[in-house]
Design a protein that fits this description.
By secondary structure, the chain is an alpha+beta fold. It contains 9 helices and 12 strands.
């Protein structure tokens, strides 16, 4: 192989680096395929045969960091608690496999990280160049839409639980600090408002204190952050859901909310234990104005 590479015209280190990376991804993808097959075979041999009835295998293909991985997995018939039949893949359950379509969560993370700072076309180029998986800008867009849909569903579920005082948070704190602000963003396409080009993206963060990370450097402790373009009431519900998903709200006795005094920010003061204060910048500005 080395002789063939050296005999090619125009070979340089960058080309060599890309070729070796491509070969490495192919090897890794093949290794992952073999490991998945072996795990599936092990589960087939050791399963509870009375509970899981073998119903054959199904072919599938995952889009991973190494590239596409195709393999066969066994499907089983089982009975739910309500006595209804269901078909499951033990391999997916054991590995806690989470996919967005056929895209793995690890690859989705790479796409999301890039899309947060680049266009979809640039995201597709970066992800295709830094992983073994080729993706188009349309594919990147589809991934982000599916990710956003899942996150939205999770936020709505947390909001419903918080409304019913069934939040799943277990962090105990007597004081919760909150900050809120809005950022005006230029919108495109169907998201552009009828008047003007900008929409306000609401942002809120909650935390229970600060912790030292380095010399004179602190970070917020147990930070929860939410953002969105919803109307004020819907955004407040989402915020409360996110807080209740992390903190035991029954143990919170005081909530300090910091902001610029905007209507949608103070509109969240629905509890007597929530105290609003102007942030230092706006407080000083109001003093100077007065």
């Amino acid at each position: 192989m080395m002789k063939e590479m050296l005999s090619e015209k125009g070979l340089d280190f960058n080309a060599l680096e890309k070729e070796i990376f491509k070969i490495g991804c192919e090897i890794a993808a093949n290794l992952l395929e073999q490991v998945l097959i072996r795990i599936d075979e092990y589960l087939e041999a050791t399963r509870d045969k009375k509970k899981y009835r073998h119903k054959g295998t199904r072919a599938t293909t995952l889009k991973t960091l190494m590239g596409e991985v195709s393999y066969n997995r066994t499907v089983y018939e089982t009975e739910l608690e309500n006595e209804e039949k269901a078909y499951v893949y033990l391999l997916d359950q054991v590995l806690k496999l989470e996919t967005f379509g056929k895209v793995t969560a690890s690859l989705v993370t790479r796409v999301a990280e890039s899309a947060s700072v680049c266009s979809y076309r640039e995201t597709a180029a970066k992800v295709s160049g830094m992983t073994g998986q080729t993706i188009s800008h349309g594919g990147a867009w589809n991934v982000i839409q599916e990710l956003g849909k899942r996150l939205s569903e999770g936020e709505k579920a947390d909001a419903r639980l918080a409304k019913d005082n069934q939040g799943r948070g277990n962090i105990v704190t007597p004081i919760l600090f909150e900050e809120a602000d809005g950022v005006w963003i230029n919108m495109q396409g169907k998201d552009r408002p009828k008047k003007g080009r900008k929409c306000e993206m609401k942002m809120a963060v909650a935390y229970d204190g600060w912790e030292l990370k380095g010399k004179n450097r602190y970070a917020l402790r147990n930070k929860v952050m939410v953002c969105g373009f919803e109307e004020s009431k819907e955004f407040q519900r989402k915020k409360e859901g996110a807080i209740a998903a992390k903190f035991d709200t029954d143990e919170i006795t005081i909530r300090i909310q910091n902001g610029d005094g905007g209507g949608w920010i103070k509109g969240g003061l629905v509890d007597a234990d929530v105290h609003f204060q102007l942030d230092p910048f706006h407080k000083n500005r109001e003093i100077l104005n007065a």
